[in-house]
Design goal:
233 residues; alpha/beta; five-stranded mixed beta sheet; two-stranded antiparallel ribbon; 9 helices; 15% strand
């Protein structure tokens, strides 16, 4: 089985695929350019909200915070309401969010709205049976791989080393691939943690782990997309 992980990056998107024991990677400015270059089989896990609530917090975000516990729960941003995708700036989105659910939209969440729009637009054009793109979250995936909460933030040197050690246990070429991508790209285009996160989503099924989701039975949004966060244990 082929598994691919995608993460957003300043240059657009970075994808890492794990196929027949081999690792490959690609970067593109848009999903339309990236997806045709990826393997044609197997699920694609992306660190981006899929399935958007129209009235409140998604159950998968709440479940993911509970799964991570107090140490890493802050890494789960609340996905914006579907209605906010039509807003043109953060001020408008923040006002609408307060009107609809009595709380504002963080600037961090607003900054990823263009990428959420891109993912949503792509999926809305696909028949349900053709949808290979599924939501995942690196911090949930890493904790599932480690079997325990991680000690450090991914932004800290210790956190980077901790995550690379976990990935090295999944695949002996994980660290060399990480170093190769670092050499081939600029940090203004791809951050270190973008590489690590995409690699984690590609490798999280390693070792015969089984697919699970938060929550176990994901609800669907108003367009039929599942509101879930996938992980493997």
């Amino acid at each position: 089985m082929t598994h691919t992980g995608i993460d957003g990056c300043p240059a657009g998107w970075i994808a890492i695929s794990h196929c027949d024991g081999q690792l490959d990677w690609a970067i593109a400015a848009s999903l339309d350019r990236l997806l045709p270059t990826l393997p044609t089989t197997g699920p694609i896990f992306i660190d981006m909200p899929i399935g958007l609530s129209s009235e409140g917090d998604r159950a998968c975000d709440v479940a993911a915070r509970h799964f991570l516990g107090s140490a890493r729960r802050a890494s789960i941003f609340s996905a914006p309401l579907r209605q906010l995708l039509d807003c043109i700036n953060h001020q408008q989105a923040n006002i609408l969010s307060r009107t609809l659910q009595n709380k504002g939209l963080s600037i961090q969440s607003w900054h990823i709205v263009p990428k959420i729009r891109a993912v949503d637009a792509y999926l809305q054009q696909q028949a349900a049976a053709e949808r290979r793109l599924r939501e995942a979250h690196p911090e949930v995936a890493f904790q599932a791989l480690a079997g325990a909460p991680l000690r450090y933030s991914k932004k800290d040197p210790e956190g980077l080393a901790e995550r690379l050690e976990i990935l090295g246990r999944c695949h002996d070429q994980a660290r060399p691939l990480y170093e190769n991508i670092l050499t081939a790209t600029k940090r203004r285009d791809v951050a270190r943690d973008d590489i690590v996160d995409a690699l984690c989503l590609a490798l999280m099924p390693s070792g015969g782990r089984q697919l699970h989701s938060l929550p176990e039975v994901p609800p669907k949004d108003s367009t039929g997309l599942p509101m879930e966060i996938c992980y493997f244990v």
